[in-house]
Amino acid sequence: MPELARRVREGFLPGLRQAEGFRGYYLLDAGPDLLVTISMFENRDQALLSNESAANWVRHNVLEYTKGVPEVMAGDAVIAEAG
Fold it and tell me: Which of 16, 21, 32, 59 is deepest in the core (most CB within 10 A)?
């Protein structure tokens, strides 16, 4: 997990921050062999574009850390708050 987190922080996040509509990103350790990422954007179209870029980045940078095919979901935030 530390190496994967480093690669995401140094290699993926700088580009993601530049994406139109970017509002936030979270990488969660959800237990054995399960990671959850949450990307927040102003609208659904911007989020979907980001998913394409993310999939490409994963294929070229951290594929060895994945097992199986990642599940991608999208939805609208009903409540979003950051402190």
Answer: 16
